[in-house]
Amino acid sequence: MSGTARSAALDLSSDWVLDVRDLARSAGVMREEKMTLPAPAELGVALIGVQEGSPVDLDLRLEAVHEGVLATGAAFVHVTGECGRCLDPIAYDLEADLQELFFHPEQQPEAEEDVEQYVVQQDMIDLEPVLRDAIVTLLPFQPVCREECQGLCPECGVRLDENPGHHHEMVDPRWAALKGLTGDVADTATETKSNEMEES
Question: How far, CA to CA in Å, does 77 sit from each of 87, 88, 138, 173?
Answer without folding.
Answer: 22, 20, 12, 49
